User: What shape does this take?
Amino acid sequence: MKQLIDAIATQGYFVWDDFLTHEEVIALRDCIPENWKKARIGRNDEVIREKTIRSDQIQWLNPTMGEPVAQFLTKMEHIRLAANQAFFLGLFEYEAHFAKYEKGDFYQKHLDCFQGNENRRLTTVFYMNDEWSTEDAGELVVYDLKDTKIATIPPKSGRLFVFLSEQFPHEVLPTNAERFSIAGWFRTNGVKNNHLDIAS
Ligand code: OGA
Ligand code: MN
Assistant: This one.
């Protein structure tokens, strides 16, 4: 945890390999229900635009999906508390979805705090791809705000990538093999349309 906090403080992101063991990843994948839905952009269901931006399918995590999911969420809670203690970010809650990218699926370059999601502060992406190899592609490419490429991250099983949501545009290159991840966001409370936005 200290390494994560130090890296976020100095460079804004951290790659945490072996965040979960092989067995834990298998158990987590076994919890995913067969209930995939095409991902949408923002909260306004801009379905038409969305197809050209991302083509993955998602399901929001929920602790009732099984003990491994509940344990994953507990680990995220530990990160939330550590980040709040170190950075006074006021992170309030965590939302996360499983994502499935089938052959050819991608997610074009974007920031995670786009319209409707302005109060996302810290992003986590966890990978669940056993025996990933370079031919499988689907790497996450990370840029800085000047559009300089700063990292290319293979979606290797057990790896957790954490970064400041507002600092790093990123994209998922088209994958050649089925690709599973959990994308999640720590959010602050915000005021939106004159309503206190607590968990929408
Ligand atoms: C996202 C995202 C990255 C990945 O869902 O916002 O950027 O590697 N996912 O799955
Ligand atoms: Mn993203």
